Structure formats: structure tokens, C-alpha cells
């Protein structure tokens, strides 16, 4: 069947290239203690002010970018390793694999952050004044196009996520932690997210749809077996999936990867990692 024929042309040269995140994790210069459950946000920190409707649009940055970004990088490596070890995923052509991973890497990463209980704190970023914005715009028009910020350096506020976007991420994490999701439940949720048959450009839609249906069925059976007294748990877990849809992948990239890698192209990085042995 055409859907089970693999066509990975780039993997032959992948051993000569180390993964970007792999280098980050092995870099001694950026070595940091393993991020344990850190302190939660203090009340009002990183949250929009109720008295000011514009508070949700304020820009925020990570308080400890080296620690948080390294933890997120480790989770992404672990997530892609999980994906690579799914036999049904390996049977798909490389083009199909890339379409799936590019569309779902961010929600899979968030599920991994929740599973590993990765905490992070944010601080409000100083917004440039209107005059500063006008002068910056004029200078950029007179000069050559600016390059992306170097890794480790703070980037301009226009790239930083807003308070409301951070609230969405933290709301998702809090929901997962309140449900005390098990390892098997996380695996079934990841399978449901990974095998999305609604993506444009897929050729094996029926096969992928069947895999998603099987992941949901396995989750339902597991919940009915382990949580017999909680008939609403399956619905609660699906609410977790619905929360993922409201979180933009670009926000995740800007928050967890730009501070240490710079203006990163996630598609290129995912291709490199997918073709490498993690």
C-alpha cells in the first residue's frame, strides 16, 4: 500500500549533522541544574490587570530564560524521540511525517511540559514609548534589514508573547496538573494530537484518521478501567485537547527557543531533528 512506503532521502546525511537542540543540551557553557518544580507565579505576576483592559496585551519575558529554555529544549527532544518510536508513525512517508510534526510540535511540547511538570516564571517587559517606536521604524527604513537577535540576548518587545498568551499556556498546564494525568493518558493524548487527518496536503488521510480514532478509543478504555468512579474524566481529558487549540505555535517558539537560539526556523530544526537519531 502506498501509505506504508517510506521515502526519507535526507536521513542518509543526517548523521553528519548534530541536532541544534542536542548541541544546546550538551553545551557546557549553558549548563544549568536540572529544572525541578519551580515556584509558581505569585498572584498578579505575569497576569493582566483586571482594572485595565490593555493589561492582557502587555509583553512578558521569561524570568530565567536559560533554565526554562533548556528545560523546554529537553522536552522537545524527548517528545520527538517519542514520536519516532511510534511504529505507525514510522510507516508513513517522510513527507507525511513532516506535515504531522510541523503542525503538532507545539501542542506535543506543551503536553510534555505538563507531563514533566516544568514550571516557569515571567516578568513584564518594558514597552518602548511611541517616540521610540517612530525613531526605530525610521532607522530601520534607512538601514539594511536588521538581523535576528543573537542567542542569549533579549529581543525586542514586538516578538515577546503577551500576558494573555502566557495565561493561556499556564491555564493549560494548571488544568493538566489538576487532573493528575497518568503516563498512559499522556501517551494517548499525544497520539490523538499527532495523528491529525484534517491537515491539508496529507495523502494517507484514512490511515491517519484510523490511528487517531484508535488513540481516542484506547484512552476511553483506559479511563473506564482505571477511573471507574469518574465517568466525566474522558470528557475532561478532551477539554485539555481543546485548550491546546487556542495556543499559537509561534508564541511557544518565541517564548522558549528565541532567547537561546535566536531567530530560529522551527521547520528546519524539526526536519533536522526528525532525520537524526535522538
UniProtKB/TrEMBL annotation:
Record's subcellular location = Cytoplasm; Nucleus
Work out whether the entry's keyword set contains Transcription: yes
Q: What is its main location?
A: cytoplasm
Its function, per the record, reads: Nuclear receptor that lacks a DNA-binding domain and acts as a corepressor that inhibits the transcriptional activity of other nuclear receptors through heterodimeric interactions. Component of a cascade required for the development of the hypothalamic-pituitary-adrenal-gonadal axis. May also have a role in the development of the embryo and in the maintenance of embryonic stem cell pluripotency.
- Indicate the family of this protein: Belongs to the nuclear hormone receptor family. NR0 subfamily.
Which PANTHER family has this protein been placed in?
NUCLEAR RECEPTOR SUBFAMILY 0 GROUP B (PTHR24081), NUCLEAR RECEPTOR SUBFAMILY 0 GROUP B MEMBER 1 (PTHR24081:SF1)
The name this protein goes by in its record: Nuclear receptor subfamily 0 group B member 1
Q: What is the taxonomic lineage of the source species? A: Eukaryota, Metazoa, Chordata, Craniata, Vertebrata
Amino acid at each position: 500500500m502506498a501509505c506504508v512506503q517510506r521515502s526519507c532521502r535526507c536521513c542518509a546525511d543526517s548523521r553528519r549533522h548534530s541536532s541544534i537542540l542536542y548541541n544546546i543540551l550538551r553545551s557546557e557553557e549553558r549548563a544549568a541544574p536540572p529544572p525541578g518544580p519551580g515556584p509558581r507565579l505569585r498572584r498578579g505576576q505575569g497576569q493582566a490587570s483586571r482594572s485595565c483592559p490593555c493589561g492582557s496585551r502587555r509583553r512578558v519575558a521569561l524570568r530565567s530564560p536559560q533554565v526554562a529554555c533548556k528545560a523546554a529544549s529537553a522536552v522537545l527532544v524527548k517528545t520527538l524521540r517519542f514520536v519516532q518510536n511510534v511504529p505507525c508513525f514510522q510507516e508513513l512517508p517522510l513527507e507525511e511525517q513532516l506535515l504531522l510534526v510541523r503542525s503538532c510540535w507545539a501542542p506535543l511540547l506543551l503536553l510534555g511540559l505538563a507531563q514533566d511538570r516544568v514550571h516557569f516564571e515571567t516578568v513584564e517587559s518594558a514597552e518602548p514609548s511611541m517616540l521610540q517606536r517612530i525613531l526605530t521604524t525610521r532607522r530601520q527604513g534607512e538601514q539594511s534589514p536588521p538581523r535576528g537577535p543573537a542567542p542569549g540576548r533579549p529581543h525586542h518587545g514586538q516578538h515577546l508573547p503577551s500576558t494573555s498568551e502566557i495565561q493561556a499556556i499556564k491555564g493549560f498546564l494548571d488544568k493538566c496538573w489538576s487532573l493528575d494525568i497518568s503516563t498512559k493518558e499522556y501517551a494517548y493524548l499525544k497520539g490523538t494530537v499527532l495523528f491529525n487527518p484534517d491537515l491539508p496536503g496529507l495523502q494517507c488521510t484514512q490511515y491517519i484518521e484510523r490511528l487517531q480514532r484508535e488513540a481516542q478509543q484506547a484512552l476511553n478504555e483506559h479511563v473506564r478501567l482505571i477511573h471507574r468512579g469518574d465517568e466525566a474524566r474522558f470528557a475532561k481529558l478532551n477539554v485539555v485537547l481543546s485548550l491546546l487549540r487556542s495556543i499559537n505555535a509561534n508564541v511557544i517558539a518565541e517564548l522558549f527557543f528565541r532567547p537561546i537560539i535566536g531567530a530560529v526556523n522551527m521547520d528546519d530544526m524539526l526536519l533536522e531533528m526528525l532525520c537524526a537519531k535522538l
